[in-house]
Amino acid sequence: MLLIAAVVPAAAQAPRDGQAADVITAFHATLLDVMKRADELGVKGRFETLAPAVDKAFHLDLTARQAAGRRSWKDATPAEQTALLDVFRRWTIGTYANQFDGWSGQDFIDHGQKPGPQKGTVLVETELTGKELVTLTYLMVFKDGRWGVYDVLVRRGTTSISQLAKHISEFKSIAKNGLPALTDALETKTRALLGEQ
Q1: So what's the pLDDT on residue 9?
Q2: Is the pTM for the entire model greater than 0.70?
Q3: Is residue 160 within 8 Å of 65, Cβ to Cβ?
């Protein structure tokens, strides 16, 4: 189930038709390039290549705030909030760099976009071919004059997982101890993903 909450703002201007799907097409082009050059780049090279593509394709600030939990976010200082947003970004990029570490003929097949669950949102569905077909449905939000990913529904066979719902579930017990505790935990995870431990 895709999640969307009150943190998602209304559209500030009328978005162009097809723009959200274009964002995902561009992101997948970079991701596919990274997969094909995985060994040459190494995990840190993949991270550096993916970083600007993730920044363009995602609204990680919205996702991070929702994943951390309203109470933990509200009780944190501005500096603590900034620290969490920074590490959440690096953890997200590091996860992509770690998971997409090779290519064996896979391709992304885009199926366009359709209206999302709220005004100012759309759903963009794609498929990742390979040994096992994976369907990726991106929940896109129009904010700051651009479309960006807020959540991703990953479907393999009959199993579907919302990445945001997974984050919320995993972060809940940690965030109860305050936002810095979550930041520290994600920093440790990021270092492990990038081989810095």
Answers
A1: 53
A2: yes
A3: no
Tell me: the pLDDT tens digits for 103-155? 999 999 999 899 988 888 999 999 999 888 999 999 999 998 999 999 999 99
Task: Using 50 as the pLDDT threshold, list the residues of the chain that sit under it.
Answer: 1, 6-7, 10-12, 14
Q: So what's the pLDDT on residue 15?
A: 57
The DSSP result for 137-164, as a single string, is EEEEEEETTEEEEEEEEEEETTEEEEHH
The number of beta carbons lying within 10 Å of the beta carbon of residue 22 is: 14
Question: Rounded to whole angstroms, how far apart are CA atoms 31 and 28?
Answer: 5
Distances (CA, A) of 131 to 25, 75, 151, 177: 22, 45, 25, 41
Exposure b/e, 131-156, CB count within 10 A at least 16 = b: eeebbbbbbbbbbeeebbbbbbbeee
Single out the residue of 66, 67, 60 nearest to residue 85, CA to CA: 60
Q: 132: number of CA atoms within 13 Å, CB side?
A: 8
**Euclidean distance between the first and final Cα of the chain, in Å?**
35
Q: Which two tokens stand for residue 93?
A: 């990029």
State the Cα–Cα distance between residues 180 and 84, nearest whole angstrom: 7
Taking only Cα atoms into account, the Rg of the chain, rounded to an integer number of angstroms, comes to 17
